[in-house]
Design brief:
With 189 residues, this protein is α+β, with helices and mostly antiparallel strands. It has 2 domains: 31-145, Sandwich (Immunoglobulin-like); 151-189. The protein has 2 helices and 10 strands, in the order αββββββββββα. It has helices spanning 3-9, 153-188, and strands at 16-17, 20-21, 35-41, 44-51, 60-69, 80-86, 99-105, 112-117, 122-132, 135-145. The strands form 3 sheets. A 4-stranded antiparallel sheet has the order 3-4-5-8, with no helix packed on it. A 4-stranded antiparallel sheet has the order 7-6-9-10, with no helix packed on it. The longest helix is centred in the C-terminal third of the chain and has 36 residues, at 153-188. The chain is elongated, with a radius of gyration of 30 Å.
């Protein structure tokens, strides 16, 4: 058997995918983040990602936050406090939602990691806050957990309009029929 034949007949035992060992792959390793935002806040470049791509109630998730000084490129090395609050319509009316602390994290390999697990679906706002120098920096980002509700602001508005239009139509029809009956009675007398 030639060397070329031995190469083609030998079984392939691949245990790496894209340069990563297969034992390091989790269920969300190859999925994109649910949210990935890059922004500049004050003197800092901020990049944050939320995993998995579609957070579900009762399933664990995580946030990766990268904070670098915009001028020097040096990674911020301090504590970051992660909090969460409900994001609902009452917030627009000035009602202060309750805020719950997820955790306070230190840097771990240029990244601030925060795990989370929500037990119900809904819209939430996650905040990451840190103090650099004498300034407090707060980054807010939305997070949807679970399937979106079919009853959003637009569908509720449309449903109300339909009910009002049906009500007005019924009242107008009733008024016309009452007028016809009254005319018939007056004409017959």
């Amino acid at each position: 058997m030639s060397l070329a034949g031995a190469i083609f007949l030998s079984p392939a035992h691949a245990h790496h995918v894209l340069g990563r060992p297969s034992y390091a792959l989790g269920e969300d390793s190859n999925t994109p983040p649910a949210l990935e935002i890059e922004t500049i806040i004050g003197d800092y470049d901020i990049n944050y990602m939320v995993f998995p791509a579609f957070p579900k109630p009762g399933a664990p998730g995580r946030i990766n936050l990268y904070v670098k000084h915009a001028g020097t490129g040096k990674t911020f090395d301090g504590k970051v406090t992660f909090t969460v609050r409900n994001d609902h319509w009452f917030n627009w009316l000035g009602v202060d939602p309750e805020e719950e602390q997820l955790g306070v994290q230190r840097i771990d390999g240029f990244v601030y990691h925060q795990n989370f697990q929500f037990w119900r679906q809904g819209n939430f706002v996650i905040s990451a806050a840190f103090i650099a120098g004498d300034e407090t920096y707060i980054i807010d980002f939305p997070l949807r957990v679970g399937a979106p509700s079919p009853w959003g602001p637009i569908s509720i508005t449309v449903a109300i309009l339909v009910v009002v239009l049906v009500g007005v139509t019924v009242m107008q029809r009733r008024r016309v029929l009452t007028g016809k009956i009254r005319d018939t009675h007056q004409h017959n007398e």
